[in-house]
Design a protein that fits this description.
- By secondary structure, the chain is mainly β.
- 0% of the residues lie in helices and 43% in strands.
- The chain contains no helices and 17 strands.
Amino acid sequence: MRRTLIVLALVSVACAPVSEPSTTTSSIGTTTTADAPTTSSTAAVTSTTTTTTTTPALASLAYEPVAEMPFPVQMTATPGSDHAYIATKGGRIWLYDGSSVSAEPVLDIRERVLNQGERGLLSIALHPVDQTRLFTHYTANDGDTVVSEFTFTDTSLVDPGSERVLMRLAQPAANHNGGMIMFNSDGALLVALGDGGGSNDRFGNGQNTNSLLAGLVRVQVDGDPSPTLYFYGLRNP
């Protein structure tokens, strides 16, 4: 099945700043601020002041199409820059500069990727510090899950020959092979793996802590990349 996504820009219209209240009433869009009662030693005097502010309603939302591409699965931005990268399920990664998508892919590994059903190029991640390093999670032609590192030559090109395989894992079925990868706050790469497929956890991986399937897997990209089970009991994250 072929899917197409139109990447959209979202514009918010007619937003006005309002000052923060000390208390909020239950009426939507209305805030109320009240002074505490004051007293003196000669006479009991109480003074209360109430101020009401209403926020203008949102006038409209506007969408602007900026790109069209086959079956994108993820967009990830480079920290501190105005560009991002879009992965498409067939095995290509594209540069998005904030207004349009590159005419040619940044990386094309279609010959290494099995793009069938739930399989394909499933996720990408950028190194949180070193912007020359790109990480991918894809299904190999033999059905294995592969997590690899590639090297950028510049922002618009990745060297396909620079692949360093960090993890390779056999999958017992064609579905529930997982997907997302992302960096944890300690610099480790987390890989989301499904339970291996079938139905009703056929292979019993959900509660099997001796298997990496059905879990979040932790991979140290700097140092020993041997994967370890970080969290388990997941169907198909």
